[in-house]
Amino acid sequence: MAEKRTIRVLIAKPGLDGHDKGAKVVARGLKDAGMEVIYTGIRQTNDAILRTAIQESVDVIGLSILSGTHLSICEELMEKMRKENLRDVLVLVGGIIPKKDVGRLKEMGIAEVFRPSSTLSDISRFIQSSVSM
Amino acid sequence: MVDDKKTEKKPKRVAVKQDLRETNTGAKVQLYYDPTDLPGFAYETSLGNPGQYPYARGIYPSMYRGRLWTMRQYAGFSTSENTNSRFKFLLNQGQTGLSLALDLPTQLGLDSDDPLARDDVGKLGVAIDTLKDMEEMFDGIPLDKISTSFTINSTASIILAMYVAAAEKQGVNPSDLRGTIQNDIIKEYIARGTYIFPPEPSIRLIGDTIEYCVKNIPSFNSVSVSGTHICECGATPTQGIAYPFLTGIAYIQEVLRRGYGIDDVASLLSFHLIAGGVQFNFFQDIAKLRAARRLWAKIMRERFHSQSEKSMQLKFSTGGMGGGMTEQQPLNNIARISFYALAAALAGSQSMNLPCFDEAYAIPTDEAIRTSLRIQQIIGYEIGVPDVADPLGGSYYVEALTDAFEKEITGEMERIDAMGGILRCVEDGTIQRQLAEQAYRVQKKFESGELVKVGVNRFRIDEEDRELEVFEVDPKTLSRQISRLKQVKADREQAKVAAALRGLKSAATEKTNLMPFILEAVKAYATVGEIVKTLKEVYGEAQHLSVF
């Protein structure tokens, strides 16, 4: 049986917002849960995020969005991912996301949305059960 | 859900004063405090009356009887017209100062038609591209009658110039303007992220604005050094005072180097300090703010040899911050906000800015903002809190905590100075790394239940279907803002703009004070983006650190 591969995660902060405590806490939490984690830093464009995701061949992209810009950012990112044929990469969103937008984000192909009540273990459990190894 | 309670009886224990208990912030406290816990306490030197050095009891002799704290709620949405009507609404509701949120493109020096700005125009605050937007935002609001606080940092000099120019157009003398620009770049590198230029020219630009205010708008707070954002980002209560103090001192030194005296500069600084937030402890937050006042007075007098009371009086506003607000059982947040506000009032804050109960859901609605304002009004007008200055002064516990905080803050300032100073520790990421580590530890403690959050890890209910009404940004904002910008660009005198920007560029190269040049550019209707682009050509851009 093949040895279990380490899950690779890109935590990304798209848009102009610089509040990245949440992104860093999640990055750290996933690292402690045994994953390999790269954090992009703030003010990333979708193109830059995709470039890093491809270069680092990640299994998961976790977007941290607090500024109310989640719908337009995710729509564009998912469109670009389809063009790049990155179907196997799991995309998650965390942050200040109104509940009523969760359905729309999932329709776009976002696998899960983690709102402020989510815990680090919720997130790592979800990733571990969703990434096919 | 049932909260498990231990039913078996514990063996009886004798209550011992020195039994230490660790509080939610990690401090150790005794069962009770008495006079032996205040060695060296002498009323005159430790406290003084309100309005007397070292100002532990407040900076004004009559405190809230003379004037209540300024009641502000952070607001500013989409376009200048929307913000104008929001402001008129808040002033009608009895708010006494305006606190203006600017959208991220404005904070980062991007015009609304910049491709990078598209998702963010008008989202977290109002979009300002040119003086035109500023004029419309304050249309019908006489600028000499109100006090405005701008949450703006790397582009603060431009926004200040626009405010001055808008006042002149109203026929108001700029020297009559009152308000605050945040203008604190160091905490942007640490916590908030709206930096543009590298640290060195950024601090020089802050020096330029302070110098301009010293000469022209002496009652305008030209810097609001902020401890709130770093606390949201993992700073301890002690660091939440120590780092803004070190930062404020760095800005002061920048201006002292230009030949000014401490008493020309110090009174133009105000601070924005946390009362509330993720790691709120009621009595500690009060003591911390009292200690901050006393320590600042000593630093000004003993280290900088200030002769002026105004320089020694630590002016601060308080913010509670959204990080303490829970998504679960959101109405509980109203209780939390009330305690933040009460702590701030008992600590003698000059101005309050509270989070809103729907903060974990979206940008606050009118109702949520109004509720936070009502909390301030209930404390200010209904329940007798402002009648007596520093009502907790003399409490053995609060005084012992105040002494302890003063020592700890001093120690933390010395630790950072020994590592090369605040700027060095920010440039090499030492502070960012430390805060990320602390924030992670706190999160783990909430998840393990070691720290209690009511409604989150204790006393939960099933609330699957909870949905709050959320504030929606007008979807036409972007197109409206872009067409307005186009119009302004079409109407202005291009040659005047180009000349002003050329003048600005050579002033930046020569390191002369940029404020007069920025004012000229602004008056010619140069855009925020054009001014920032000009400065980037000289200064370059800051590097992003992504440590976690």
Task: Label this structure with key terms.
heterodimer; A: 133 residues; alpha/beta; Rossmann fold; 5-stranded parallel sheet; B: alpha/beta; TIM Barrel; 22 helices; 12 strands; globular
Give structural notes.
The complex is a heterodimer of chains A (133) and B (548). Chain A is built from five helices and five strands. Chain A is an alpha/beta fold and 133 residues long. In chain A, strands 2-1-3-4-5 form a five-stranded parallel beta sheet, with helices on both faces. In chain A, strand 1, helix 1 and strand 2 form a beta-alpha-beta unit. The longest helix of chain A is centred in the middle third of the chain and has 14 residues, at 70-83. Chain A starts with 7 loop residues before the first strand and ends with a helix. The mean pLDDT of chain A is 94. Chain B starts with 20 loop residues before the first strand and ends in a 9-residue tail after the last helix. The model of chain B has no long low-confidence stretch (mean pLDDT 93). Chain B has 548 residues and is an alpha/beta fold. In chain B, 53% of the residues are buried. The longest helix of chain B has 23 residues, at 396-418. In chain B, the strands form three sheets. Chain B has a five-stranded parallel beta sheet.
Main beta-sheet strand count, sense and barrel state of chain B? 5 strands, parallel
Give the helix proportion of chain B (percent range).
40-55%
The largest beta-sheet of chain A arranges its strands as 2-1-3-4-5
Given the structure, what is the number of helices of chain B? 22
Residue windows where pLDDT falls under 50 for at least 5 positions of chain A? none
Output the CATH homologous superfamily of chain B. Methylmalonyl-CoA mutase
- CATH class of chain B reads Alpha Beta
* Chains forming the largest contact: A-B, 34 and 46 residues
Amino-to-carboxy terminus distance of chain A: 12 Å
Q: How many domains make up the 3D coordinates of chain B?
A: 1
Rough shape of chain A?
globular
For the record, what is the CATH homologous superfamily label of chain A? Cobalamin-binding domain
What's the architecture of chain A, going by CATH?
Answer: 3-Layer(aba) Sandwich
Q: How many β-strand stretches of chain B?
A: 12
What does the main sheet of chain A amount to? 5 strands, parallel
Number of separate structural domains of chain A: 1
Q: Find the CATH topology of chain B.
A: TIM Barrel
In round numbers, the mean pLDDT of chain A is: 94
| Mass-distribution shape of chain B | globular
Spatial arrangement of strands, main beta sheet of chain B = 3-12-11-10-9
